[in-house]
Amino acid sequence: LYSREKGTATRRRKVALAILRCLLLGLLLLVLFKPILAVDKSEFKEAYVVVLLDDSLSMRIRDRYAEPKMRLALARLAGVSDWGATRLSASDEAKLDELSRADLVNGALGNPHLDLLGQLGRQCKLRVATFANDLRGVNPKAWQGGANAEPVALVKPTGDRTLLGAALREMADGLRGHRIAAAVAITDGRAHDVDPSLIEVAKRLGTLHGEPFPVFAIGVGAIEEAKDIEVVKILAPSAARKDDQVTFNAVVTAKGFEGEVDVLLKADDKLVKTVRARLQGGETPQTISIRYTPDTAGTFRFTVEIPAEPGEASTENNAAQHVLTVKDARTKVLFVAGQPSYFYRFLKNALVVDKSILLSCYLQSADSDFIQEGSRRITHYPETRQELFDFDVVVFSDPDPTAFRPEQLADLKAFAGQFGGGFVLVAGPSHPPEVWKGTPIEELLPVALGGRAAGGDPLASRSLKEAFKPRLTEQGRLHGITQLADTPEESQKVWEGFPGDYWYHAVTRAKPGAVVLAEHPYDRDERGPMPLIAVGRYDPGRTLYCGLDETWRWRFWVGDVHFNRFWVQAINYVGSYRILGSSRRIQLATDKRAYALGERVTVQAQCLDDAFRPSQAEAIEAKIETHGAAAQQARLLPSRQGPGVFEGSFVASRPGSTLVSVSLGQDQESLSLDVRLPDTEFQQPTMDARTLREVAEATHGAFLRLDELAALPERIQAAGQEITTEVQDTVFDAPLVVLLFLGLACSEWWFR
Asked: E strands of 306-446, at which residues?
């Protein structure tokens, strides 16, 4: 085009203009093809090492290691002895035995000579987490610290389950997209994974994460079969009277042990009694009885302890605790009799001399000027409810029912049913128990009235010619009322040696929930043998029926010993709720009596004011006491369940016996709770080396014992990854192209 133009321009200038025009068109053609500049960039990406620390409750166990080489290595790791020590001193040996699994792990992680976490952090990106029920990450500052910082305890055993499989699965899924050089699990291996199992999770870790990685299982604890003595629980009353004998029944198991041991009974950590007992070995529980007579009133925390034997896996379960409230109180008894029978005379004498009883007798047939007998004399049967409720137990011995007004019988029903008083009815020939049918007395009795002996005529039973001996039932042989000697076997011989009785009053049957203590040896009906002595509850009170009026015959040849003991025990039993069971103004209850550590305890209190009306307080404070910890307060607020009912809760934070108390003025009510470590963590206390080896093999890792921990860093390869990426830059829309285009166009026009 430029060559055809006419003008003054020279040929050389036309060629230059043509070249500028061609360059401009070439640049436009290049932009139309959209050129891209591609550059390869390389980046090295570090892999992760994840350290999983088991903080379940089984890490509290103190193992006993027998191998000297292992003991030395563990002592060096935990910082008990010098890093270069070649043998352990006696003090170092004792210190090592006091360390739990958690203490050993914490000591090893904080050991500056080993510097395990530091070495792993220099090789790879380090992540630390604890696991039990779930996975919980640890802040890096918690374990890195400063140069002079004290080692931080990363393992604080609190979890009641060990879910290692779930922890591995969550860790692998959480780091998906990142390379994992290795996972290190420091645990005793007692996993409780159910669905899926730990081994199945280990086999599928590569699929869960996206690429496989090894698991190094570090086993903590003793491998050999566990040897363990455990005091499972203590069976004993929660309250007793001063100078009364209390039996503490300790339920004990002894795995791997058999032989005689000392069993210690301590009151508030003070040794009060020691008994020698033989452990049978095995997992079958056995009961060891310790009898003790408290001589001081107050609330005491009793401990039954068996000293640790050599080689025992755990010593934390060698003791159990029980809270006992000892009260300095005497049972106030009202004894009402129709006639001055032999039973009246001998029972009156027995109760007058007993130091645990204050007796008031009322003999109906006595003259008006007769001075009623007893250690606390009265002149008449209680006329008002206040007079009646001043007693703890009422005993009727063949009384005349016509001498009682209906309101007095109603008060007697309230005496047992509302205020927990005890009631005893002893049958007699003058006024058989059937005279009480249709009255409140019938409701109180633990037996149904109206029965008779097989063979028919009830009058014939009053003049029997053949003596019979009451036969203890299975429950009666072990009941506290019938124990007339130091052991059930000796007590049974006492009962078998009694002289026979010639009269009893037959009843229809025992009521549901009642306990028959003694029955007739051969008189029976279609329901079974005839009940002779039975106890029951008329909540909250307790009642007793005795169909015999000749128990005084038990005095023959031996004097008062058995007769007195039986009736004093019977009266104290039916009056135990009123004496020991509860304050009259406070009723305290929890949703259950045994809790696992960390479980929430719900407390409910029904409180009355000074006039015995439902309390209108805005809140009630409950005191929580656990051995070895400071007392706490739990605030109980009014509940919707009714007036005067308060409710609150607290967390069972320490194992052992916990005492919950509520006070209103001078009245106080307490109850004892049993807080135990979860059984699932202690059923198999040894290290599960087999499972840990299977996990390591399934992931092409390795199994190491804790004493071999120093070899771990060199076995983990820094499996980093070099990642090359292509970076593309669009050239056609770059600012330089625009400037070049404008430069060419302007140059051409300038030359023209």
From this structure: 319-327, 331-337, 357-363, 393-397, 422-426
- CA dihedral sign, ordered 575, 579, 584, 589: negative
DSSP string of 90-107, one letter each residue: HHHHHHHHH--HHHHHHH
Q: What is the 3-state secondary structure (H, E, C) of 52-76?
A: EEECEHHHHCCCCCCCHHHHHHHHH
**Total-model pTM:** 0.52
Residue 382, SS3 per DSSP: coil
Task: Yes or no: say if 371 and 377 are a contact pair by the CB < 8 Å rule.
Answer: yes
Is 256 strand, coil or helix? coil
Q: Contacts by 23-30 with C-beta closer than 8 Å and gap 24+?
A: 23/744, 24/741, 24/744, 24/745, 24/748, 27/737, 27/740, 27/741, 27/744, 28/741, 30/732
Strands 528-538 and 393-397, by their bridges, are: unpaired
CB neighbour list of residue 599: distance below 8 Å, 6 or more residues apart:
651, 652, 675
Per run of 10 residues, the mean pLDDT along the chain (length 752 residues) is 75 83 86 82 77 90 85 91 89 90 92 89 89 83 54 81 89 89 91 73 89 92 76 81 84 86 92 92 84 87 88 74 82 94 94 92 93 93 90 95 94 90 93 92 92 44 70 90 88 92 89 93 86 92 93 90 93 84 70 79 84 80 82 90 87 80 80 72 77 92 92 78 67 81 84 78
